[in-house]
Amino acid sequence: MTILSEYRFLVFSILPGAVPAMSSAAEKRIASFGMQTRRWRNRFQIRDLYVGEPQAGGRHLMRVAFYEPRTTPGITVQVANYRDGWSSLVWCLSKDLPGRFISFTIGSADDEWPAYKFNVHERDRHRHVSLLRDVDRWKFWQEGDPLPEEDVDSYKKRRSIDRLNRESLTRLAERLGFPIQDDRFWDSTGYADFFEEVRPEPRRSEP
């Protein structure tokens, strides 16, 4: 069983640079959010962040990792334990740094509320395509100019679930140079940088 088949909900982002530069920029941004964190380095394993799918809601402590995949040296993959993959951090980094930032949300038909998305952020460009199931219907949405690697003809299919799904997003990632079906993509070439939110100790009142 591969990581892709084992996880029914995967959210990750591709950052256009080496881990030291990307994680340093992220550390500055995280600090600007007023969030206290601890940082450490270790081999990347996605189960250190979540198993099956990230926890819903935002009340749990944040944890995020930045690593270089064995299949694609020179880039950084960001994985967080937020259900949106910490999309706001990716958006901020795309304003701070040059290059193309790509995020994927790959759900499963077995989910109660399936979600399939990808986003592209550049300083002068934004692209978004998504398919979400809301109550009793699917909602398909796109904005921005398509990437050359996209299969835009599929967006015209009659059945919404045939327009964007786990298989089509996997193919798109492969065309973009990210072989996410290969478990080596989910393994780091060296140590990954981890950040974990630390809640400050409450102040004790004077006796």
Task: Write a compact overview of the structure shown.
With 207 residues, the protein is α+β, with helices and mostly antiparallel strands.
Radius of gyration in whole Å, from Cα?
18 Å
Strand content: 25-35%
Uncertain ranges? none
Note the gap between the termini: 58 Å
Helix content: 10-25%
Classify the secondary structure makeup into a structural class. Answer: alpha+beta
- Strands, total number: 9
Q: Order of strands side by side in the largest beta sheet?
A: 2-9-3-4-1-5-6-7-8
Write the SSE topology.
Blueprint: H1 3-6, E1 10-15, H2 19-32, E2 37-43, E3 63-67, E4 76-80, H3 87-96, E5 101-106, E6 115-122, E7 125-134, E8 137-143, H4 166-175, E9 191-197
Antiparallel strand pairs: 1-4, 1-5, 2-9, 3-4, 3-9, 5-6, 6-7, 7-8
Helix pairs in contact: 2-3
Structural summary, described in words:
The protein is an alpha+beta fold and 207 residues long. Helix content is 18%, strand content 29%. The N and C termini lie far apart (58 Å).
Features:
single chain, about 210 residues, alpha+beta, 9-stranded antiparallel beta sheet, 4 helices, about 20% helix
